[in-house]
Amino acid sequence: MSSTLTTTAIGYHLDRVGNGTDGLTLRETEFPQPGPREVLIRVRAVSLNRRDLMILDGTYPLPSAPGVVPVSDGAGEVVAVGGDVSRVRVGDRVAVTYFRRWIDGPVTAAVAGEQTGCNDEGMLAEYKLAGEESVVTIPSHLSFEEAATLPCAAVLAWSALTSPDRPMVAGDTVLTVGTGTVGLFGLQLAAMLGGRVIAITSGADKAARLTALGAAEVVDRADTPDWDKAVVELTSGRGVDHVVDAVGPATLEKSIRSAGFNGQIALLGAFPSGGAQLDPGIFNGRFVTVRKLVVGSRTSFESLNRALEQHGTRPVVDRVFPFEQAMDAYRYFRETGPFGKVVISLPA
């Protein structure tokens, strides 16, 4: 293991749930030292997800650990490794998986119950101590700020498109619903893989930006409330092959109506409780699959990173805040409706 030059490290801790950013405390803790199979990461950037707000508010389905370091998404540099570590070495640029023990295959409830930044220490700190099994190297063409956007939203969108049951192939038509970070990644990745992307949004400005990201057609839901009918018309009555629905129950019925025969509908994201009621009769005469996904495995993350590097694809970053302004980053993310990821950067 490499030597260290300091005895304390600084990080944000969630001490009071239900108080928004007032529940966060910035404090020093003892400098972490890796065990035999652990990796010490100097965090260089983190990014926020809707889930991070829900954890602050106490509305996330999984209770957070008292005093936990929040935020699942981040990237940094390996600065020390345990004696038995073989997957990475000092100097590697890495990120940490959302689920620390989900390596591959189907996820179990036990594995899904162990989450970075919720009941396992997160990334909003100078250093992150992680088991080597939960660490992945990041694409070489991405900055730390860009790579910090990947572990949750990007892996979730990638999992929706690459499901082993019916993975997307070049030429498929993909509908993306929502322009949050998961929806944007869904658009970028589908276009990257050779799909024809139809995007649902509101407003001419967003429509132009979605087109620039690779959308073949954009339907403005403000002008076209029955956007599911417009999608069917755009596909000559056939419907789409895949739906990446990052809005939730409120749009699920229209997503189902937009899908073609054997259409794959992925419902993505952490949603508040409640929502629209679904009429079971909507499935009459339809052959579709609806799935609610939970991010993805380490294997899926590694596959995503290889594809991003092959195509040179870069995430959309809305704004970068310095570490000392993390509270402002949370508030900006909650209040402004950013287009792309909100990132918090740490000094080298």
TrEMBL record:
GO molecular function: oxidoreductase activity
Domain Enoyl reductase (ER): 20-344
Signal peptide: none
Descriptive protein name: NAD(P)-dependent alcohol dehydrogenase
Source organism of the structure: Solihabitans fulvus
